[in-house]
Write a structure and sequence with these properties.
The complex is a heterodimer of chains A (341) and B (392). Chain A contains 10 helices and 13 strands. In chain A, 32% of the residues lie in helices and 20% in strands. In chain A, the strands form 3 sheets. A 6-stranded mixed β-sheet of chain A has the order 2-3-1-4-5-6, sandwiched between helices. The two termini of chain A are 56 Å apart. In chain B, the strands form 6 sheets. In chain B, strands 14-16-11-17-18-19 form a 6-stranded mixed β-sheet, sandwiched between helices. In chain B, strands 5-6-1-10 form a 4-stranded mixed β-sheet. In chain B, strands 2-9-7-4 form a 4-stranded mixed β-sheet. Classes of the chains: A alpha/beta (341), B alpha/beta (392). β7 of chain A pairs antiparallel with β23 (387-391) of chain B, so a sheet runs across the interface.
Chain lengths: 341, 392
Amino acid sequence: MKAVHYLNQFFAGLGGEEQAETQPTRLDGAVGPGRGLQAELVDVEIVATLACGDDYFAEHEEEALAALLELLAELRPDVLVAGPAFGSGRYGYACARLAAAAAERGIPSVAAMHEDNPGVGEAGAAYVVPTAVNVAGMRDALPRLGALASALASRRELGAADEEGYLVRGFRRNYVAEKTGAARAVELLLAKLAGETRTEVAGDMDRVEPPPAVADLSSALVALVTEAGCVPQGNPDHLQSVRAQGWFRYDLGGADTLASGRYESVHGGFDVTLANEDPNRLVPLDTVRGLERAGRVGRVHEALYTTTGNGTPVVVATKFGQEIAGELRDAGVQAVLLSGT
Amino acid sequence: MAWELATFSADLFREPEAIEGVEVELVTPGSPVRVTHVLDAVEPRIRPDGRAAFPSEGQAGEGRTNRLDGVVILSCLDFPGEERPLHEQESIVDLGGPGAALTPFADMTAVVLTFSPGAGGHVEIDAHARETTLSVAEEVARGTLDAEPHEVERFELGVADESLPAIAALIQISDLGPLYIQYVYGTPAGEAGLPRAVDPAEILDGAVTCGEYHWAAMRNPTWFFQRNELIRTLYRQHGKTLRFAGAVLMRGYEQSAADKQRAADGAADVARDLGAQGVVITTDAGGNSHTDVMLTCRACEQAGIRTTVVLAEETDPQSTRPILTDWVREADSIVSTGNVEELVEAWSPERVLGGDLLLDGTPAREAGPIPVRNYLGAANQMGQLALSARTE
């Protein structure tokens, strides 16, 4: 199997700071730290070394990446190894950006650098092996980098970050565990009873602190928002019954009530029979109008916001919420009656 | 009380005779076949004493039951597109390709029943399909009646060391309305007097059957109750690392906040009556059943019963943190059965059974990558399989 190794001008032996403007260059075989790395690779040969000046990469990133990716495309390696860059910010950034771009193109890629190197956050789906902050950590870094690079080249499914020695990238990924969920559950429960609580999912809900209560509702503009899939009869905008792709705004036109002939729910996650007999059960417009007439609510916002909350990914639902909240804020709405199902 | 499960080789498999309105196909293990619109998966079972293998009266989990190893019945049905309050979701079993890793059925002989819906509404059509599927599961196992088993397992909870922790299984089953219902002795979960304690062997012996067709990955088909890994693990560990205190069935998808709290408190009460010091709480389906599970977790912890919860994640693949529908602070011990939002690599099967078009109209043969959520039982929340998710 073939590896390509990426180095900056210094480690590639092209010169120091004065050569930092060096454009992407291809060198044959292993160079500099690549020789030590080669000794740690299993069934993998470094067929070429790509080098680029740190300044050139930083100042001409687009051109540098394009040239390096073109060289990679010609070489068709089984794995790309970049660095180690240790604590060097510019070098670490170049390693990470190239590794991320290669990984995006389906080339298994690993960079190596200190965990505080700003490049760590730029590595995308590529792996990062942590190293010491300076070159004194070379001897320690190469065996770990070599092991991970060999594993990537072999297309072996990698284990967890701590087992394989890479920095957590933060993505949740499915994998097949050694034991069934049932066996793991019994183990976790017995451990918890023995005083050692562990979890496979850290509960960490996005909890929103409520703002202070509205001081005087009798002068407030109050909006109605729902995820009950409540739409004008016939669903003119084709709101989905499940996994909604968007939300809609409908003018209430001063109506006193959500009449059953004029509104319906298209929600696919609950039995809508009773809701459709009287859509006020989903969005209590009739009651809120009563409060408005009685002077207990200042005014009802004439726009009804609606979507379907059923199987919606949280990121999508969060986006809907932010968009709707933005419009409500711009309209001067001070309170919202949000009915869920 | 003791129950024996006798295992027989697939050589005794009896091909079912023609059934009106049903197409029967046999698929050999590992065939490059995709099965779509799968409602349920059932293990062939029959009782030598002539009682029903999936009883609607009497008690399961006593005497002896025969099982046919290595054979699974898959029932498939595309409901007619009439108005109905709840809709089934696409449910796939891939017997080959990358999806085969998400199912226990790929290395079995599959008897695929594809129903052509006759007259009547979705409630009648579903009832007919479920009854037929369970009766085919008995018919297919009939050959075991005159044969010798190659293994007999005995399920009996003997006296165990009192110093071992007492553990119960708290199993949530769904009832949200037609097409989203699990059945206890043939009765919808919502009318089955839940929560209540049952002999764990009842669950393994056909007392619970599946008529819940919500997100496929988070479903618990009948096979997962018959072969329930949680119950079997607790039997195996009884007297070794724990005392198996029993099983509690509870309903998910209670409809009002008060009913949800009442069900959670009730389940904790039953667990306490069993003397449980710890419970594993399992989940069925998604969305508001996850709130039921969290409330149950809290109610148990407040009653002094330690909990571990089994749940699937619904995490966007680009997200760097796991996403659950609901969570309470007491849920500090959670088993992840995988992320249903992740895509499974595209695969082109040689044959498609169940129906050529997926419910969204995509041709099943060239569907591209399919989310885990559409694979039957893949991220089931009883811990039947080994799929999980981790931060990488």
